[in-house]
Specification:
alpha+beta; globular; 3 helices; binds guanosine-5'-monophosphate; five-stranded antiparallel β-sheet
Length: 130
């Protein structure tokens, strides 16, 4: 069965899309740890990031870099943090989070719940700068 992220790429499940290229896709995390928390995924469904081919991995990382640059322009921050966990959804994904201090990237704290209009605004802002 297709992963929830493959279903998002296929448009079967809605998302706040921020960017796409031939091989990769990016959208807002539905339970953000901070405003502008983005997930970047390869279109090829692979559970473990390091099982991607070298080409797929390189393509994803270059895409991640472009998304991070667009994210920082949209939501100014000290840095954009990057993390890979992948224990919840078995489709490789890279978390990008705008951070001003280390605790902004704490995956154990209570997640934000932002209004749909704000999520849409953030996604559109990043998309424009991509
Ligand atoms: P991980 O697998 O890296 O531990 O976490 C998976 C991430 O995917 C979580 O941060 C979770 O909020 C996010 N997530 C899970 N299901 C969905 C979904 O259907 N839509 C979106 N946008 N994010 C999701």
């Amino acid at each position: 069965m297709a992963s929830i992220f493959s279903r998002i790429i296929a448009g079967e499940i809605p998302c706040y899309k921020v960017a796409e290229d031939e091989h990769n896709f990016a959208f807002l995390d539905i339970n953000p740890v901070a405003k502008g928390h983005v997930l970047c995924i390869p279109k090829h469904e692979v559970d473990y990031l390091f099982d991607l081919s070298d080409e797929e991995y390189a393509s994803l990382m270059l895409f991640v870099k472009r998304v991070a640059e667009a994210l920082k322009k949209t939501l100014p921050c000290v840095k954009v943090g990057e993390a890979v966990l992948g224990l919840e959804v078995p489709h490789a994904h890279v978390h990008l989070v705008p951070i001003n201090k280390e605790s902004d990237m704490n995956f154990f704290k209570e997640k934000l719940s932002l209004p749909a209009e704000e999520m849409q605004q953030i996604a559109e802002g990043i998309a424009k700068n991509f």
